[in-house]
Specification:
With 477 residues, this protein is α/β, with parallel strands linked by helices. It has helices at 38-56, 60-76, 78-89, 93-113, 152-163, 177-189, 204-213, 226-239, 261-273, 290-306, 325-340, 374-377, 393-401, 416-425, 464-467; strands spanning 3-4, 6-8, 11-13, 16-22, 25-35, 120-123, 129-137, 140-144, 167-171, 197-199, 219-223, 242-246, 252-255, 285-289, 344-347, 364-367, 384-390, 405-406, 408-412, 430-433, 449-450, 453-454, 468-476. Helix 1 (38-56) packs across helix 7 (204-213) and helix 2 (60-76) packs antiparallel against helix 4 (93-113). The N and C termini lie far apart (66 Å).
């Protein structure tokens, strides 16, 4: 099996071979990928630093051309890349193909943005002087991505970084090197100059730490756990670098008495359990008013019983495995914690055996829970959801906002009054009405409040806030 190497200064570099294991079939090795070390990270950072002056001053059509070629190839290969994603991460094949397509759309969007870069010219308050405000690249950007969206999240960080003239050192999660390598290979062949994009696959404690310790990285965009995000922020403060953090959620889906029951159940199943619940936008807290509570729980339980949990690439599979043994163990620990706290497990939570050995877990649903329980305070990151019974809309809103996180928040209702009030008063960066809490468009800003996010928003035109700095220039006529 060929070794997929790291990309440093335009060259493919060897490293210790690490097997990429399929969570749907642990007997299958998806590929062998080179593990980078601290020295590799240092070389990648130096290469990005050396490449920055030329790339940041490159013509707009040069950047547009690279991003456009990458977009075209990703979209043309979305089925192939989606299958790779499903095999290495465990998303269903349909979800994998959809995510690959989204990555292509993101590169396409930012290819267009290279041609829409704009500034502003205004007169000074002093006669005869003109003032120009322009955006310029930040410099060398460190990009650290998680395993749960192994092609979309790298795309929505790398594409704007390159669009605005930055150079990149990219460290993907070690669990999912396949999609990261594919993106690097596509961009490399699309014509990126040496050193503009450097791929260093390896341990966070080694490669990630080397990036945090380097004074030559001007900005870091990180998606991952709260604990690691705090370390990224602390290390970045020492170097006075820009930092952008996305760190998870404990998202509520409020279901009011007047909600359409089918819509509410659809939103809950999609938001809480699709992608095996391994989404920072997953609706793991289902806040349900008394009048609809019993009907909602019964209908949701029936839907869960009908879901097909199996190999991610198998036709008909609706939920794949969790990503690895550590995540499976964490899910089971929280299911045990919920029972110990007095919550009622009305469905699921059992390991499943399938034709191929994998990390299969039956979706779990708790009822009779309180918002103070650990299963409602801490991010589980698996196919586990809790129902919280509340009296009315006012209590539902209070419970929904009673969380240290603030990424996504949803409500199911037919009341325009309540929908409007919820959009204004939900303490979250993204609010969904009669839609799942998970699932956002590629051209609009993504991010939250409280412990979920720190720094400027990701995606869309708002990405410029992080990947550029504003320069003000004066000219005497």
């Amino acid at each position: 099996m060929d070794l997929h190497r790291n990309l440093i200064d335009g060259e493919w570099v060897d490293g210790e071979a690490i097997a990429n294991i399929n969570p749907s079939d642990t007997n299958e090795v998806v590929g062998q990928y080179a593990r980078a070390g601290a020295d590799d990270a240092a070389k990648a950072i130096a290469a990005a630093r050396a490449a920055f002056p030329a790339w940041s001053r490159s013509g707009l059509m040069a950047r547009h051309g690279v991003l456009r070629k990458a977009a075209d190839e990703i979209l043309a290969r979305k089925e192939e890349l989606g299958r790779l994603l499903a095999r290495e991460e465990g998303k269903t094949l349909a979800e994998g193909i959809g995510e690959a397509a989204r990555a292509g759309q993101i590169f396409d969007f930012f290819a267009g943005e290279t041609l829409r870069l704009a500034g502003e010219t205004i007169p000074s308050v002093r006669p005869g002087i003109g003032v120009e405000m322009t955006r310029q690249a930040v410099g060398v950007v460190g990009i650290i991505t998680p395993w749960n969206f192994p092609i979309a999240i790298p795309a929505w960080k790398i594409a704007p970084a390159l669009c605005y003239g930055n150079t990149v050192v990219f460290k993907p999660a070690e669990l999912v090197p396949g999609c990261a390598w594919a993106i690097a290979d596509i961009l490399h062949r699309a014509g990126l100059p040496a050193g503009v994009l450097n791929l260093v696959m390896g341990k966070g404690s080694v490669v990630g730490q080397a990036m945090l310790d380097s004074a030559d990285i001007d900005a870091i965009s990180f998606t991952g756990s709260v604990a690691t995000g705090r370390r990224v922020a602390a290390a970045s403060a020492e170097h006075m670098r820009k930092v952008q953090l996305e760190m998870g959620g404990k998202n509520p889906l409020v279901v009011l008495d007047d909600a359409d029951l089918d819509t509410a159940v659809d939103c809950a199943v999609n938001g809480a359990f699709f992608s095996t619940g391994q989404r920072c936008t997953a609706s793991s807290r289902l806040v349900v008013t008394e009048g609809i509570h019993d009907r909602f729980v019964a209908a949701l339980t029936d839907r869960l019983k009908a879901l097909v949990v199996d190999n991610a690439v198998k036709e008909g599979t609706q939920i794949g495995p969790v990503v690895d043994q550590n995540q499976l163990d964490q899910d089971e620990r929280y299911i045990a914690i919920g029972r110990d706290e007095g919550a009622r497990l009305v469905f699921g939570g059992e390991r499943l055996n399938r034709e191929t050995p994998g990390f299969y877990l039956q979706p779990a649903l708790f009822t009779e829970t309180a918002n103070a329980m650990r299963i409602n305070r801490e991010e589980i990151f698996g196919p586990v959801a809790s129902v919280i019974r509340v009296k009315d809309y006012e209590e539902a809103l209070t419970v929904a906002n009673d969380t240290p996180y603030g990424l996504s928040s949803g409500i199911c209702t037919t009341s325009l009054k309540h929908a409007t009030h919820y959009k204004r008063n939900a303490e979250a960066g993204m609010v969904m009405v009669n839609l799942p809490t998970a699932g956002v468009d590629f051209h609009v800003p993504f991010g939250g409040s409280k412990g979920s996010s720190y720094g400027p928003r990701e995606q869309g035109r708002y990405a410029a806030e992080f990947y550029t700095t504003v320069k003000t220039a004066y000219t005497l006529a």
